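Letters spell out the chain; backbone shape is given numerically. Both lines appear below:
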Amino acid sequence: MTNTADSPGSRLASAFGKAVSVAGNAVTVADQSALSTSRMDALVREAVFGEAAVREAARWLIWELGQAVGVCSASIHDLYIARGRGEVRGFTVPAINVRGMAYDTARAIFRVAKQMEAGAFILEIARSEIAYTDQRPAEYTAVMLAAALREGFRGPVFIQGDHFQVNAKKYAANPAAEVDSVKLLATEAVAAGFFNIDIDTSTLVDLSHAALDDQQRLNYEVGVDITRHVRALEPKGVTISLGGEIGEVGTANSTVAELRAFMAGYNRVLGSQANGMAGLSKISVQSGTSHGGVVLPDGSIADVKLDFNTLRELGEVARREYGLAGAVQHGASTLPDAAFNNFPKCETAEIHLATGFQNMLYEGLPGGVRDEMYAWLRSNAAEERKPSDSDEQFYYKTRKKALGPFKRQLWDLGEEARTAIGGALEEKFRFLFTQLAVGGTAAAVERHVRPLAERRPAPSGGAQAVQAAPDDPDAGE
């Protein structure tokens, strides 16, 4: 991009007045307080809904603003390996799937993190969620970083690709094509700043075999193949945090024998091919939950019998024998509140939280908007309804699919609704951060995580497309 005031980055930066300037590829922030104003709201909206040239320039500018003030996408790998060495302990990292109202949801997370001096938390989106929420990785990264900047948060931001999963049916039909599709997504995600990725090849576990190694063979062999691909994508100086998985969530509880079979095979294959390449930093296990919970005919969620002894035992073996951070629990957001303080007590490394926040979003929506979304589901998700499903069960199981088609409407909700939903989410995040003992973990993150500067060249062309970008003389006040 040429060093001109007509460049997209310069025109967008002008909305911040004298607080932000762009000269070629260089972004300078003279007044950081300007980033915590409504000007950031306007910038992130361009990053999501702007025309192509403006959108790319806005995403680049958000990234560079973060680089300038210390809000950088980072890998949690070194913190997790330190945990594997026993240097940090006593908390469980929440990995939060931000689906609908992404900017407002992330702002609520960062408000709590700032207030509680929390640094060990993850913002993530799964392969399936990227599709049905209409949030590609570059957009997701921009929105998460913009939310951090808007709330005055400073420090590493851990953005994760959750369940970069190999579909078992598609793999059976065409193994190479299905694995390549995961690799392509990983390539896109790493380029966007996803420096944490959960590889999920647990779908390939074949329980028809008698020997555990044979059951886990495709899981660890394909897992290593994807590991090697991701490692080749790493920016210089970055070790992406990679997670593996030994039991598909919603199936039988994992065992220590399965963990050892998977890790032995994974390390054996990786060791013969990697020349010192880093492996996994954590391992996901099954201990009694299911994604989204089990919804009953009246719309309530069935009680879950979570096996904390399984989590404790598997985590101890993962740390002691393999140097990992420990065990990871999926499908936790719909658990009863009383369950959450048990995770740090049994040294669970990480838990994944998603559907509970989606439920809160739907509960807080104005009735007319929710009715529109449900009407869309009746027309567009009817094939997913079982004959035995009540209306409550059908809507609960399918309503995530309406988040993408209604993304713009959710961003455009009135101030009253957005404030109410954001406040409810903030209260929930504060509760979870307290129960999971991540308050004060910014100090541990600062000790172990060193985000590297990754300044990016500005996108070129499209200057004429940003002539309508706001140039507010009051920006930054």
Remarks:
- The longest strand covers residues 155-165.
